[in-house]
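Hey, can you fold this?
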Amino acid sequence: MKETSTYKDFLDKFKMIIDLDEKEKAILESFRFRDEDLSQKSGAILAFSGLMIATSTVQLSSSPASIIYVNPESFMMLVNKIGLIVLFISAFISLRGMTLSSKYSNKKEEALPKFGQHVSIRANFVKYAVLVAAFGALLILASFFYSLFFNIF
């Protein structure tokens, strides 16, 4: 039976993990847990951006009789549209961070630093996605609360 390169790579990586000492295994576990944590955070940011995008589109499509109506010629309409674009950018950054992958060597001297670099890059994507999402959400909320305040009073 002929071995495929995928099966051989898997066996080589498995042997590499078995050959790690306790300190290296602890480092690998730390990287792995951090990587999983960053994946979950990216998913949460993506979901939050989607919710805020939905909020924005509801406000943009509201009728003049609605309590959340924004006049199309007003400054707040521009603020809402900018917030919408910023949230799309945040969603893209978050999605890019979630789908980030790397090919690792079968040598532990090369694989552990490469995995650490991968986790660091993913952490940067999450950090930028949070900052951009927060800015976009502030713009959307400013438009939303402005329309609520001035349409009620």
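Oh, and this one too while you're at it.
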Amino acid sequence: MFPAVELYAAAVAGYNQAIWPAQVAGGVLCAAVVLWAFAAPGKWADAVGKTALNLCWLWVAVVFFTLRLAPDLKWAYGAALVFAVEGTLLMYDAAAPTFTLRPRAARGALVVGALVVALGAIVYPVAAAAAGRGWPHTPVAGTAPAATAALTLGILVWSRPAARVHVVALPALYVIGFGVYAGTAFKLYEEFIPAAAGGLALAYLVAARRLGRGRRSP
């Protein structure tokens, strides 16, 4: 393994062991956001859901990237900034909504969103375990960066009206950029899974936005 990969792997393992059982709380929180959006959509589901996602993004920015990873890998400061900005955008939207977390009626949005969530929150950690990155390396949505970003993108696919470009761009930038880099440079092939989820979500949202504009044009 490359030294950077060894540092990253050791940092992830130490982080997961240090914060246990916060992973359980983070996973339950993310699941609750999804279930509430479907079961009882409305103002409270939107506000609480966005606030919960904000807390997950800020947690990853501060606890994972800044406190745990950045002392050894300086690029983590840039990733922390991405996560801090996205968390702030979600919190701002909770106070001044521009989109809701109410799932779209369109079958395509439901299917694509569910696929993106499943890839990031379920398939990705299972594949990591199969590749030898089981506990304490397991990435869990809510406390791990790529899983959290992919799950957020799946929720944004469901949202209506479509989330603004900058809200979508940051999680997509992270999962695609890091996934492709880690998968090719360091042979962490499971990182291609959240990258694929991010690419799928981004492609769907761009296509839906263009289609919507075409329908509104005279």
